[in-house]
Amino acid sequence: MKVGDMDGDGDLDIVTANFEGRTVDVRLNNGTGTFGSPLRTSVGFNPSSVAVGDINGDGSLDAVAGNLFFNQSSVLLNVGAGTFTNAQTIQAGGSDVQRLVLGDVDGDGDLDLLTVSANSLASVQLNNGTGTFGAPTSVLVGNQPADIVMGDVDGDGDLDLLVANASRNGPGTISIRLNNGSGTFSGTQDLSVGSGPGQVAISDVDGDGDLDILAANSYSSNVSVRLNDGTGTFSGNQDVSGINAFSLAVGDVDADGDADLLSGFGSNLSIRLNNGSGLFGGSQNMTLAGGIGNGNLLLADLDGDSDLDFLTVNAASNATINVYLNGGTGPLSSSPNSSATELDLFPNPTHGTARITGGAPNTTITVLDGLGREVLITKSNAQGAAHLVLPAGLPAGVYLVRTGGQVRRLFVE
Q1: How many CA atoms lie less than 13 Å away from 69 in the CB half-sphere?
Q2: Which of 18, 23, 113, 256 is deepest in the core (most CB within 10 A)?
């Protein structure tokens, strides 16, 4: 399950890969967190994961499904309003595609495809700009890879590769492979975490401007937090315990400017709030009637009220999606003292830089794309202002600027 604005109307829709049905579904959001009937497209055998992004450069979000068997991915181009063309099947590297992710790894302005397979390999397939992907090249990772994410962990401006390796034999690891800027990955750093990490996330949890690592460890029932020194070297031994950690989502659920964590499995959801320095505490737990299917917990603003809601795939039937809206009270709350009218951005639309004023002083500012991914993290000064310099080559579109419980849309031309 992923979210993205598939029909271009400014809200987040839901995209699912349906393993037994061999389909990908799009459910369109009416803007209030209510979703319509599925728009369904047939794909290859047993799709177990899906990624969304504009892969052919036409301004609409497309999708790629990873088919668990036969080492294949299905490419679906959006022809408008969240309707896909018939899927094109491409051969992936390795064996048995576990997870996949889209990102511009070679710096040419289009989204490339990375998959992770059961035989300790990640595969990189470069996009020619039209949604056609080249032959896979392999990157060696750890034993029993289960999840893959990308982010600039060493601060050199390109996207690096991180893979969660869920081996039962000894501690689990996160393989960190650094990008040379052209989509070639190297290094052998395998970071120790808890046992059986099935999901990995990256976020600036300590507010120092670089991306840290969080891993949901299904066998040891905890979440490992490892802090980045800014060069892609990670340290610390914080393991947040008391969590059935099969699924993981990271985001600012209490609107205090830092990233909190949600994790769980079955009917149990654990919420652990960040103290601003990357230390997670509290004992908030929710019992979910529908439960959480393995790896299917997402945070996103689904109803457009500027706080983060969450959604799950039903653990019992795996046939329904449950949406939980953030009502502004309890552990999933928006700040009662924040004002949606103070924050200002200029110029807006922009071609790459903007000035933000009216924010809280000395507070983290995060710029998110239409998929909810962080594209820029910075801090306001003592007057609540900051100069935003967006990454070079950022695609045109609508982005969200979030700080201290306030959110503004930023239009990039």
Answers
A1: 6
A2: 113
Q: Nearest CA to 163 among 152, 177, 178, 182?
A: 177
Distance CA 81, CA 8 (A): 7
Q: Are 328 and 18 in contact (CB under 8 A)?
A: no
Q: CA quadruple 193, 176, 150, 204: dihedral positive or negative? A: positive
Please identify every stretch of the chain with a pLDDT value under 50, giving residue numbers as ranges: 329-331, 333-341
Give 72's strand partners. 67, 91
229 neighbors 379 (Cβ within 8 angstroms): no
Q: 194-226, pLDDT tens digit by residue? A: 999 999 999 999 988 899 999 999 999 999 999
> Residues 6 or more apart from 132 whose CB is under 8 A from it?
none
98 and 147 in contact (C-beta within 8 Å)?
yes
Q: What are phi and psi of 357, to 5 degrees?
A: -135, 160
In this prediction, residue 334 carries a pLDDT of 34
**Who's near 396: CB < 8 A, 6+ residues apart?**
59, 412, 413
Angstrom distance (rounded) from CA 70 to CA 409: 42
Across the strands, what pairs with 311? 298, 323
> What pTM was computed for the model?
0.82
Nearest to 26 by CA among 52, 44, 56: 52
- Count Cβ atoms below 10 Å from residue 2 Cβ, excluding itself: 21
Distance CA(22)–CA(296), nearest Å, equals: 18
Non-local (6+) Cβ contacts of 373 within 8 A are: none
Q: How many helices (H) and strands (E) does the chain have?
A: 0, 33
CA dist list (Å): 322 to 22, 251, 303, 337, 372: 21, 18, 14, 29, 19
pLDDT at 333: 40
Burial of 282 (0-12, 13-18, 19+ CB in 10 A): middle
C-alpha span between 68 and 316 (Å, rounded): 21
